[in-house]
Structure formats: structure tokens, C-alpha cells
Amino acid sequence: MSMDLPIERFRSYRGYENRATPPEDAELTHVGPGTPCGEYLRRFWHGIALSREVGDLPLAIRLFGEDLVLFRDGGGRVGLLHRHCAHRGASLEFGRIEERGIRCCYHGWRWDVDGTLLEAPAEPANSPLFARVRQGGYPAFEYKGIVFAYLGPPEETPEFPVYDTFEIPDTVMEPYTCSFPCNWLQVTENGIDPVHSMFLHTLVNGPQFADTWGVLGDVEYHEGAFAVYCTIARRVDAHIWTRVQENILPNITQSGAVHSIDGHTRRYFGRNTFFRWCVPVDDTNTKVVAWANFGERTDPTQWNTPDNIEILEQGEIFERPAEERQRRPGDYEAMVGQGAIVVHARENRGTSDKGVSLLRRRIRDDIRALAAGRRPAQPASFGPAPIPTWSGDNVLRIPVREDEDDRALRAATMEKVVAIYRDAEELRGDERDVRITAELQKLESADPIQSTLKEQS
What we know:
The chain folds into 2 domains: 112 residues, 3-layer Sandwich (Rieske Iron-sulfur Protein), CATH 2.102.10.10; 260 residues, Naphthalene 1,2-dioxygenase Alpha Subunit, Chain A, domain 1, CATH 3.90.380. The termini are far apart. Strands 12, 13, 14, 15, 16, 17, 18 and 19 form an 8-stranded antiparallel β-sheet that branches. By secondary structure, the protein is of the alpha+beta class. It is globular and about 90 Å long.
């Protein structure tokens, strides 16, 4: 008995021809000591752990492919040292935290938080070891429940940048952390890709947030001195909902509200619901260290619990049964499912990937500039703190106009919002918030298309 198979139809299949796997883009993804990207990332301050993770025992931690130990000594100072003792390599994970510094369990050598050898009990008091030997270490400090560290050349240590979204009045900042078994770049890129929210979170697997997240908004991208911005304008009944997602180079993402925004209720200069560092553990693992913000201008305070932070961050709980993850995948499944390191040469990017391409280009340019001897731009160098940012939402009551193209109206509105943000960048704090809010209210009552045309003429 023979089967009547449509052999000719099978000729359209391309699996056999597409088996080759090109190498990953090492320039952007490899982060170990001495790698181009690793050296670039080390020129910035990073959130590396939560203060509550640092207890009465040393914490083994891995960053940028380096094995380290994090601790807080009896004087309250934070130490971040190479994990293996410079004496004979015992792990300081098993060291004893003392009033000043940490003591190795093996032979009792005691190290200060900066790596200075304070004591070597079995050695003479005048031993040359005290002048010659230092434990490798990096500067670290605590701020609002997060431990920050700088792992670059000490002579190039930048000023720590304080952004305006660190100081939103009447806002609770809850630190949190989560881990992804994949490369840092694909976690970071998720924040510059708003199109995935319309599909992953709404049209395909949702709605995980409000139904209106599935409205296919008008997306544009903008470059700043130290950031890449994505803007989205959506029509929601009589309102135009504008949203800015912000990637601060190299690995910071912040975006607007999640559970308190649906485009139906007026909002002026709503701010970000999270501010996160996507920190490489090594080439194939990433630790997100972040604040979730809760308040009137972000998301409701009733979401301020550890469990709800996971829901807020990913639209789901991380640990779920395998079948549930397949039926309702979220950001975690999408990012990790790309593989340990996304191979860029295998992608087929489209117009909706402009933001991803732009972010990669900016990072690559900075990496190559550093290799040529030019330091990357530091946000704190662009004026006094708090550093102004754009991320957040506006919902303006601007109804559909029968005699105007609504797409053009949305575009003109978004253009005006961007101009309002740019014009207020010299201001700081409350003064900037008041200016932006007032200008948004003027925009709501004006004619964005005609105003734009007048300015262009």
C-alpha cells in the first residue's frame, strides 16, 4: 500500500537550509573583564543588590563574569571584594564580618572594604605584605534600599546620577530584584520595544493589563544625550493617550504606569512605575535590580507588596507551571525563550524594530568610542540633580475631529508633548513638573495640528 503524499508541496519547507547558527554579536553581548562591552558597562554605576539581601553573612555575588563577595561590616560600610582571598584563594563567602572589614576563614587575614590588608595574624607586624598586597575591591554604597557599585577604573569614577524619578513627591519606592537566564541586552531591549505590549500582553495572550493596551498606537523614537526614547500615541475614545518609554544608556529602563492607566482618565505627566538596571551576571545571566514606584502619579499603593511587584513588573508571577507558561507567556518567556544569547545575524527585523536597532547602534558607538579613548557620556554631567527624564503617561481630552485626519492629530499631539519635555529640561524638581503640567493643559485646549503647522512655517 502506498501513500499519496503531495511531494511537490514539501519543496517550500526551509528547515534544512536554515540550520546554520552564526556566532552571537560578541561586541554587544560579552561582558567579562577585558571585553569591549564589559569595559564599557564598567564605566557606570549599577544597582547590584537589595540592601535587605546583605545580612550578617557575606553574600556571594557574580557581576560581569567576576566572582565577588558583598558584605556590610560592623561600622555599616558596604564592601564589594573579589571572592577569593589574595593570600591563598580561600573564598571570602565563608569569611567573618567584623567591626571593620572581613576576616578570611582560612588564615585570618582581615581586609578593609577597599581591599586594604588590616591584619595577617601569623605574619610579623612589619611584614612587607601590608604594603604590597591588596584584595581586589570596588566602591559600593546604599541608597533607598539598593546597593550600588562601580566596577571601572578608579580614576574614572563618575558622579552618581540622581534622576527626577527618584524624588517623586508622595511616592513609595519599593526595591525588588528578579533574574533571567539570558543575556543582559535582550532584557534591556524589552524596554525599547513597545509593540510587544500590544501583542504579548494584550492581543495574543491577554489582556494582561487593560484592553486598551491592544490599541495599535503610533510609535516613534527619539535620541537624547544619554538616552533613547520611545513614544506611543493611542486614540482611546475622546482621549489621546501618549506614553514615553525610556532607555538610559547603557542598561536602565523606565516606563509609565501599568495597572492605573487605560487611556480613559485624564492624566498630566504621570511618571514611571519602575526604574531598573539590567545588570549582567555573566554572558548568559542577568539580574534586574529596581524600584517599583507607587503613588498618585504612578500605580496605586495597594500594589505595593512583593508578590504584586512581580505582577507589576512582568504582568504575571515568575514561577508558574510549565503548561500555564505556554498558554499565557509573558515577558519572561519571551526574553528567555530567545535563547541564552540572541544571535542578531539570524533576526529579520522590521520597521517595528527601529528602537531595538537604534539602541544597539548607540551602545555599539559608545563601545567603539571607548576603545578609541573617548569616555562615554555620563548623565550626571548634564546639569545639576535631579536629572530630568521623560518616562510616563499623559491622557489628554482631545476628541476626534471630523474635518481632520486623526492619525495626523495624534502625531501632532505627540510631537507637542516631546517639545514640552525638551523645553523644560533646564528646569528641576517641582518647577519642571509645574511647567510641564501647565503646558500639557494648554495643549489639551489648543489645536495641535494648526499650532504645529504655524511653527513649521
